[in-house]
Design a protein that fits this description.
four-stranded antiparallel β-sheet
């Protein structure tokens, strides 16, 4: 056979092999985009066996293995794809490394990704920049892992995880999403989210979506009679470009814990802390939130941190253990002073991940008995009923409503809420008016005009309440 014929034969064989691979890969690419990862694995397994160095085949095969949880089998395939210049493989490998707190490996994959981008004369993508930032953030967090004492951990259903929190009355109440509408403060909090009310029932905090679909923290004052003032969003900086949920306010009325997936989050939701103070305009301002770091936060979702100063117990929830439909609740002993683990500690990663909570515990301590001695009696779940606005309004035909939740019509409920708010204003106004009359009775005639003005204001408020109540009846009965 001549050299020319030999070369031609080899080219034909190569073209045939390429065509043999191209068909299954095109099919696999379509299946991958549709999310049918098992079908991709089945289709590409023989292809990868025949062509173990093909970048496209090993990528879609490895990515599908990763998506189905076969991490150990997926990584070698993705590394082959990475060596063939597939940037998406570098991204997945870097993300997997960060999920395992392996910062050095993540950096290596990001470097390879960067090199391939430069070779292809492409600029760094937003995903590359985001992963690089997360890698740097994780490295910084691993240098400041707080050494905390985990007393116990519980695995519970995610749908109602907060019911497992056992808080003393002084710590306030973590409430279900429907608490917001039951109090008349607004629409319900997001499903799987929570609301919070302090012990004195002075306010309620919750998360709700704004007009752009981003969840923000909202708050409303609760007046002495249980009437809820108008709701207002809290400071924009709390979400920092993302969603903000799961508020918990300490008894000092200033320290707020919440969860956010915005800038500064390591992955998913992270727990943040901020403090609020009175602003010049009479409202509340919040200082720049601080990420609590590790071990509270992880590359997964961490949220709803609550500290009970009475029992000396802290609680937070996390899905870092990747159990479908479940979360892990960690119960810990809060410390007034942050003490970080030694960066040379061989258990540093385990302490950060909380892969073994016994590493956080003291030897010789019976933690089961310790927990039982600290836990308060079962949290009272009646606080919403006792705080809900109570009133009486006759709708005719023997129908009388006593709570905002009795209204079926939303506009009618709003009208009644306005009436309750005006009634609260009237009560305060009448108290001020009585103070003026008291001064007059004691001989201070300078308040005469003020009393007349106050009486006129009283009549206006009474008329407004009548109109608002009538509107509530009319809207409910139409």
């Amino acid at each position: 056979m001549t050299i020319r014929k030999t070369i031609l034969t080899l080219l034909l064989v190569a073209a045939s092999a390429t065509a043999t691979i191209a068909g299954p890969i095109d099919d696999a690419r379509k299946l991958y985009r549709e999310g049918d990862y098992d079908a991709v694995i089945e289709k590409l397994r023989p292809v990868v066996k025949r062509s173990p160095r093909d970048g496209n085949a090993t990528f879609f095969y490895g990515a599908s293995l990763l998506a189905t949880g076969n991490v150990e089998e997926a990584l070698p395939q993705l590394k082959v794809a990475e060596s063939r210049g597939v940037g998406e493989a570098s991204r997945m490998l870097a993300e997997t490394a960060l999920d395992n707190y392996d910062v050095n490996s993540a950096e290596e994959h990001l470097d390879k990704w960067s090199a391939n981008l430069k070779k292809a004369k492409k600029s760094a993508s937003e995903e590359f920049e985001t992963l690089t930032s997360k890698m740097i953030q994780m490295r910084n967090m691993l240098e400041r892992v707080e050494r905390i004492e985990i007393i116990d951990s519980l695995t519970v259903d995610s749908i109602d995880f907060f019911e497992s929190y056992r808080l003393a009355g002084a710590a306030g109440r973590i409430l279900p999403p429907d608490a917001v509408s039951r109090l008349g403060a607004g629409s319900d909090a997001e499903e799987l989210s929570t609301a919070y009310m302090p012990e004195n029932h002075s306010e309620i905090l919750w998360a709700a979506a704004d007009s752009s679909g981003i969840f923000r923290l909202y708050g409303a004052d609760i007046l002495d009679d249980g009437t809820v003032d108008h709701a207002a969003p809290l400071d924009d900086k709390l979400g920092d470009g993302g969603n903000a949920r799961y508020p918990f306010l300490m008894p000092d009325g200033m320290t707020l814990y919440f969860a956010s997936d915005g800038n500064g989050s390591l992955g998913g939701y992270d727990i943040f802390m901020t403090r609020r103070t009175d602003s010049d305009n009479g409202g509340k301002e919040f200082f720049q939130p601080q990420n609590l770091g590790m071990p509270y936060n992880s590359p997964y979702n961490d949220y709803m941190l609550a500290i009970d100063e009475t029992s000396g117990l802290g609680w937070w929830a996390s899905d870092r253990n990747r159990i479908p439909g479940k979360v892990t609740i960690y119960i810990f002993a809060p410390s007034p002073m942050r003490i970080n683990a030694d960066t040379s500690d061989p258990s540093l990663i385990a302490l950060a991940r909380l892969s073994d909570i016994s590493l956080t515990q003291k030897k010789g301590v019976d933690y089961k008995a310790l927990l039982e001695s600290k836990l308060p009696s079962q949290t009272d779940k009646s606080s919403i009923s006792s705080a809900s606005p109570r009133f009486s309004i006759d709708l005719g035909k023997g129908k009388v409503y006593y709570r905002l939740s009795d209204f079926r019509n939303g506009d009618a409920r709003s009208a009644m809420l306005d009436a309750l708010a005006t009634e609260a204003t009237l009560r305060k106004h009448l108290a001020d008016e009585e103070a003026l009359r008291s001064r007059y009775r004691k001989g201070d005639r300078s308040v005469s005009d003020a009393i007349l003005d106050s009486e006129a204001r009283t009549n206006t408020l009474r008329q407004r309440i009548k109109e608002q109540r009538n509107a509530a009846v009319r809207l409910e009965n139409r």
